Amino acid sequence: MSTLKVTTVGNSVGVVLPRELLARLRISKGDLLYVTETPRGVELSPYRPDFARQMDVAEAIMRDNRDVLKKLAE
Q: Which pLDDT does position 41 carry in this prediction?
């Protein structure tokens, strides 16, 4: 595990990702990252438009069928 320092970036704050981490994630300047809250903390992952579309569809289905899914979970 490595640590990242929070720093000022213009009028905002941000973190600088080390070159090694950028290489492992296969990302570069201008790429998008997903930020996901997990039980263990925050997870960063490369943005994937196909996955984003799938998640949008899944969220809509879960929202529209909330009662059915709740019954199935019992």
A: 92
What whole-number distance in Å separates Cα of residue 48 and Cα of residue 11? 28
Residues 6+ apart with CB under 8 A from 62: 69
Question: H or E stretch including 34?
Answer: strand 33-38
Cα 7 to Cα 56: distance, rounded to the nearest angstrom = 32
Q: Where are the beta strands (DSSP E) in 1-74?
A: 6-9, 12-15, 33-38, 41-46
Six token digits for residue 27:
């990302």
Residue 47 in contact with residue 33, Cβ under 8 Å? yes
* Cut 0.70: pTM above it: no
Structural domain boundaries in the chain: 19-73
Asked whether the beta carbons of 36 and 45 are under 8 A apart, the reply is: yes
